[in-house]
Structure formats: C-alpha cells, structure tokens
Design a protein that fits this description.
By secondary structure, the protein is α/β, with parallel strands linked by helices. The protein is 32% helix and 23% strand. The chain has helices at 12-27, 40-43, 55-67, 125-133, 147-152, 165-170, 204-211, 216-231, 281-294, 297-306; strands at 4-8, 32-36, 72-76, 88-92, 101-105, 119-121, 139-141, 160-164, 179-180, 195-200, 240-249, 252-262, 269-277. Helix 8 (216-231) packs parallel to helix 9. Bound molecules: the ligand NCc1[nH]cc(CCC(=O)O)c1CC(=O)O. The site of ligand PBG has 10 residues, from strand 8 and helix 6.
C-alpha cells in the first residue's frame, strides 16, 4: 500500500492540525506521510489584503494537490474561500473545537476592564468591526504573524490581541487567554475552529479513506455559515461573523444560525438569527443572508471591500497604516 501524502503549511499551528488528521488516518490503518508546503502568505509579511486575501494560504496547498505532490490537504476551514473548485472535494470536516475568539490582554484584563484608548492588535476586519461596535473606545493596530508572534506583542506594542481559541488550544497555549469572548458579542468567522480536509475529486480511494473523519454536525453547521458568507458575496477576510449550532426543537434536531455584519469603524452593525432543518444547512445560510441583505448588510460588505481600513476622521482612531 502506498502512503497517503498530506500537505501542510509549516507553522506550528498548521503542523499540529495536520498531525491530528494524520493520527486519525493512521488509527484507521492508513500509511501517512507529511509533506511541508511553503505559501506566499508564510514568507511574505505584507498585509494579507495586498497578497490577495487569506486565500493565499489555501492556494499553494491546492496547487500541490492538483500537481499530485500530495494527496490530502489540511486547511483551517475559515481560511478556505467559498468559491467551488470542481476538481477538488472537501472529503471531511472533522469535529470542531472551540469556535470562539479569545482575548489575550496585558495584566490578565478582560474586555470590559481594558480602559478606553487601549490598543487591540488584530489584522481581522471582522474582529475589529465587532469590537468597535461594542462602543468601548478601543483603538486598533493591524498586526500579522503566526500565533506565537502575535502573543509576543501583548504588553509590548499592543494592550491585547484577539485570536481564535481553537488555534491557541491546538498549540497548547490556551492558558494565556484572559477572556473567551461570548458569541453574543463577538461572533466568530464562518468555519472558525473547524478543519477542511481536501482531496482531488477523482481520487475515490483517498476520498473514502478521509471521508471517515467527517463529523456530520460540524459539516452541517459550517455548511450553513459558509453558504451565508457566499451569498453575502463576502470573502474570508470580510467583516462577517457567523456561528451555527445543532439544537433540539420540538420536532427534533435543528440547526440554529446567528450572523452579524459590521463595518470596521463600528458605526453600523446588523445581527440576525434563524433556525432551520438540519437537512438543509445551505438553505438556512442563504435565507439568513437574504434577511441581512434586506436589512442593509450589502452596503456594509461593499464599503468594507473598497476601504478595509476606516478613514482617519472616523470615530475609531487609527494607529496603524
Ligand atoms: N487566519 C489565521 C488562522 N486560521 C485559523 C486560525 C485558528 C484556527 C481556527 O480558527 O480553526 C487562525 C489564527 C487565528 O485566527 O487566531
């Protein structure tokens, strides 16, 4: 039997995520080999917006898959563009870990304890928008770098950073979290905390092997979140938060979806939620997106894509470029 070659970015987080998938495949009796893939987003420190968005992380792995250098690609689902790729298939969405964002602040502070004027380091328009909407007078600095690099900025160049709890958990750094942010205030990115394991669509054998790692509830929830994002015509760096969860209603299990669209200056925010049948997660996502659009979300998404950083005369002051 030939080994399954799994492609991974080389960051500690990516290697850990890939390691989990490799372990699960080995436990199912497969022979597995990990192949490191360097992406433009890893070597170039320029703002992600100038590199073509967070899709830069996914595209090098996808290229390796198409070239036949690897058979399996492990992505953070939230970094994967929603556009369909007919020659590739998401063979598995394994069980999600904590989808929330987490605050790591100086001196153990929580969001409510940070004084007005505190500087939050984040490169995410969504995090900036949701935090600005709370009206706490926070300032923002556009930062980049892997998890370890961003943590090292706390107490030095910024008062706090906001990171995915899942990423911190995976690299065993969740002990530094000073507050797990409630989705009632800060809705995570669509797909946050979940992985996507991608294969070539015509590789039936690998599709079958990897398919065993799929987790139905996570697949349903993230399908709803990504359908919403796609219908809003918003990319993976858009100021859109969404979180779906499987709930029990009177007829049995159902899918509940919450979503928010906010502008990075924090002046406008629209939040809505809906519940639908577990059998049609994409329909639920599209329906909730229609509701948001009917209530004005389209303008916020369009403005954010033209002008990702608010003008200096906006209500949130700017310390970044
Ligand atoms: N955009 C980078 C990225 N992609 C996936 C994760 C964390 C793991 C996850 O959300 O599944 C992170 C780091 C972060 O946002 O803090």
């Amino acid at each position: 039997m030939t080994a399954l070659r799994i492609g991974s970015r080389r960051s500690n987080l990516a290697m850990t995520q890939t390691g989990h998938v490799a372990d699960a495949l080995r436990a199912a009796g497969h022979d597995v080999e990990i192949v490191e893939i360097t992406t433009e987003g890893d070597v170039n420190r320029a703002p992600l917006s100038t590199l073509g968005g967070t899709g830069v992380f996914a595209s090098a792995l996808r290229q390796a898959l198409r070239d036949g250098r690897v058979d399996v690609a492990v992505h953070s689902l939230k970094d994967l563009p929603t556009a369909p790729e007919p020659d590739l298939a998401i063979a598995a969405v394994p069980a999600r870990v904590d989808p929330r964002d987490a605050l790591v602040a100086r001196d153990g502070l929580t969001l409510g304890e940070l004084p007005a004027g505190s500087v939050i380091g984040t490169g995410s328009p969504r995090r900036r928008a949701m935090l600005a909407s709370l009206g706490l007078g926070l300032d923002f600095q556009d930062i980049r770098g892997n998890v370890e690099t961003r943590l090292a900025m706390v107490g030095e160049q910024v008062d706090a950073v906001v990171l995915a709890a899942a990423g911190l958990r995976r690299v065993d750094l969740d002990g530094v979290v000073t507050e797990f942010l409630d989705p009632l205030q800060i809705l995570p990115a669509p797909g946050q905390g979940a992985l996507a394991v991608e294969v070539r669509a015509d590789d039936a054998e690998t599709l079958g092997a990897v398919g065993a790692l799929d987790h139905a509830d996570t697949r349903a929830a993230t399908t709803a979140e990504r359908a919403l994002l796609a219908r809003l015509e918003a990319g993976c760096s858009a100021p859109v938060g969404a979180l779906a969860e499987v709930v029990e209603d009177d007829k049995g299990p159902a899918l509940s979806l919450r979503a928010a669209v906010a502008d990075p200056a924090g002046d406008r925010e629209i939040r809505r939620s809906a519940t639908g049948p577990l059998e049609d997660p994409a329909g639920l996502g599209r329906t909730l997106a229609e509701t948001l659009l009917a209530d004005g979300a389209g303008d916020i998404v369009a403005d954010a894509s033209h002008d990702p950083v608010p003008a200096p005369n906006s209500s949130s002051s700017e310390s970044d470029t």
